[in-house]
Amino acid sequence: MIAKSSKNILWFKEISYQDLPLVGGKNASLGEMYNHLRSKGINIPNGFATTSRAYFSFIEEAGLGKEMKRLFQQLEVKNINNLQKTGRAIRELILRAPFPKSLEEEIREAYHRLSREYQEEATDVAVRSSATAEDLPKFSFAGQQESYLNIKGDKELQRTMKKCFASLFTDRVIAYREEGGFSHLKIALSIGINKMVRSDLGAAGVMFTLDTESGFPNVVLINSAFGLGEFLVKGRVTPDEYLVFKPGLKKGYPAIIKKKRGDQKEKLVYGKSGVKKANLLKKEMGRFSLSDEEILTLAKWGVQIEDYYSRLRGYWDPQDIEWAKDGKTNQLFVVQSRPETVHGGGKKITSYQEYRLQSEKEPFLKGIAIGEKIASGRVRVIKNVSELNTFKPGEVLVTPMTDPDWVSIMKQSAAIITDKGSKTCHAAIVSRELGIPCVVGTKTATSVLKTGRLVTVNCSGSEGQVLAGKVPYQVKKYDLKKIPKVKPKVYVNIGAPGLAFKTSFLPVAGAGLVREEFVIANDIRIHPLALYHFRQLKDKVLKRKIEKLTSAYSDKRQFFIDRLAEGIGQIAAAFWPRPVIVRFADFKTNEYRQLLGGEIFELEEDNPMLGWRGASRYYSPQFRPAFNMECQALKKVREEFGLTNVMTMIPFCRTVEEGKKVLKEMEKAGLKKGRGGMKVYVMAEIPSNILLADEFLKIFDGFSIGSNDLTQMTLGLDRDSAMVAGIGDERNEAVKKLVAEAILHCRRQKKYSGICGEAPSNYASFALFLAREGIESISVSPQVAIKTISLLAKVKN
After folding, report:
1. Positive or negative CA dihedral for 468, 473, 475, 476?
2. 731 lies in a domain?
3. What is the pTM of this model?
4. Which of 242, 492, 527, 595 is the most exposed place for a label (fewest CB within 10 A)?
5. What is the pLDDT at residue 136?
6. Cα(61)–Cα(257) distance, rounded to whole angstroms?
7. Which of the four pLDDT bands, split at 50, 70 and 90, describes residue 144?
8. Same domain, 269 and 211
9. Dihedral sign for Cα atoms in the order 486, 487, 493, 496
């Protein structure tokens, strides 16, 4: 039996992950999955790979080694002109060299065998490069070497394979190897040749088995676009984005906690001479590129692949997976899987780092935040690869998009800004790996920004921002191993779903206040009644605006339910299984009027703070349909996503009778208190809640104290009024007496007591007061969570 190391070609069925030195990371992974995961229903297209022996034989028989060594001795990798000259010379050597006759014949025979398997005279194949130092846990080399699609026939295959060999010496690969300390002449290139998946007629994309920004492990992130995957990876289209909650998926829930449609007008398809651009088909316009069933199938495969490699390596090994959907058969395939290198590789999160701007300056440009950091520098606008030699280290690179040719200057950038792209485009992946803040998908960066302008790039929040000038910022780093457990429990207040995964790493006991208002105002933007009564709306301009935002939905009510459920679901998934308390919408009439269509359904009130808000809305005939939609969203989170850690909270409930009416409306909507362990709390923010505490606690599961409104109501002031703002201090003795009374009643009745107002975030003395009174939990803003824990650690219980 011939040893593998003596072979020029290995079929996938002969390859395991131990063969990485022979066939590189990409092909070793394909072989491993082909042999061990197809039995679990994961589709892997068949094929074969040339080995490192075949590569070195080609170099040796062509007599290239001596000249390549001489060229590398003259290499100055930080001199871009020298780097380009060296790379070009080596690539030309390889492209001019003849294939060894014996290797040429072996490739031809293997290709004909693969064609026969698929019952074709000359089947179409993907030709993928796989370096022997590729897809390592610490160095991915992702996208560095070239791959080619839809290759047919002996001659075209062999020409393409030589181009793959040459791509081992592109400028970007040479620079990357230098950075990693790899020898240029000891790394070989394996080439994988496998049956082509006709994704040009279907869809393609990437899948990560974690949140790529924060490293949060409990989700699968899928990006998808119509046509071949190259447009998506290179950022030429904004793909659809899906998030699937892993624990819910494993329990059988259809746990798609986020579906965001991308912006795609064209796709990449096969043409007579390679690939070409084409407009989307009419049936593809305005719809998602994957069905819910396909999203769940891919997510299950992602979890299976991650679990398999984690067992193989002995540590959590999140995966970066490429997939494709064949438009002819409608079958899904996995075409590649590699370790995710930023958060994986056995790394454990032992610290929490926080970047915070020290300014209220508004950004002049926004996009998708990559990297969770802040940096400043002078802009360098580069619109094509021929201008790379103009870049200076420490500048902010501004470009329409990047591809692997740009890596040499990306490494030297203070930050990166692109017109196009998504969280999984090339610029995002490389910036994340390099630890550089990056804002992708700004649409207008290259036209708005000019070379030489000083800017600050802020990726510390839920959106990427570009600000004028050098804006000061602060970096705080906490050692999570040194954070003590305290009593009372510390929760966080949160509204933005985009910050939830990062915030979840704080050593807190849960989320004490999730504000629906953020999701409604930022992600939905339409008054719920305008969606409920959409067909009856008379204003044609308004209807067009709503239709544009909700075009994927014929039932506009479902748009509201889905978007609200997804926003809440992301936060609940982030903290799972810790409790997450969701407050029903507490907009005032003036705030509801600012939503699209709001002026039709909302009257103007002289004092909205004391007007139609909270519980009084939920049972009213006018607003009841909107409240029902909120209930349906929460029901979806608990019953479809499997996020039973979500509890609910009623704001501004003036009387016990109001509380009973709201609970009745919730039950009619399928949200019954106690069912499936669901708790329903009431906000103690009106003196009547505390004066009648025993009566309120008979129908609710506890109090969450809203210190902002309680102060307003106790001291008789409007907290929106600047004239009396100075009086509104939660440390007032009357307010503290009511707070202490609320806590006491909860303790007597063995009901939950918490606080979600701003007082303990703003005043350390107030947090200590709450602890002494025996409150069960204190919910604070994320920025002061660790500070509050450290403070409470000093309290003797």
Report:
1. negative
2. no
3. 0.88
4. 595
5. 44
6. 56
7. low
8. yes
9. positive
Closest alpha carbon to 670 in 572, 561, 533, 518: 561
Contact 644, 676 (CB under 8 A): yes
Helices (H) and strands (E) in the chain, counts: 30, 30
pLDDT tens readout for residues 263-295 = 888 898 887 777 788 888 888 888 899 999 999
pLDDT at 323 over 70: yes
Shared domain for 497 and 611, answered yes or no, is: yes
Measured distance CA(257)–CA(299) in Å, rounded: 12
> pLDDT tens-digit profile of 720-777?
677 777 787 889 999 999 999 999 999 999 999 999 988 898 888 999 999 999 999 9
- CA 665, 670, 676, 678 dihedral sign is negative
AA identity, residue 454: L
Evaluate whether 626 touches 619 at the Cβ level (below 8 Å). Answer: no
What confidence category does residue 162 fall into, taking pLDDT thresholds of 50, 70 and 90? very high
Let me know whether 520 and 631 are in one domain: yes
Q: Is the pLDDT of residue 176 over 80?
A: no
**Residue 149 falls inside a structural domain:** yes
**Which of 196, 163, 177 has its CA nearest to residue 72?**
177
State how far the alpha carbon of 693 is from the alpha carbons of 424, 559, 656, 688, 741, in Å.
51, 38, 10, 8, 9
Per the prediction, the chain carries an average pLDDT of 92
Q: Which residue has the tokens 């994988």?
A: 192
Domain, as residue range, for 10: 4-196
Question: Cα dihedral sign for 73, 77, 81, 84?
Answer: positive
| Buried-exposed string 619-643: b where 16+ CB fall within 10 A, e elsewhere | beeebeebbbbbbbbbbbbbebbbb
CA 723 to chain centre: 43
Do 73 and 181 share a structural domain? yes
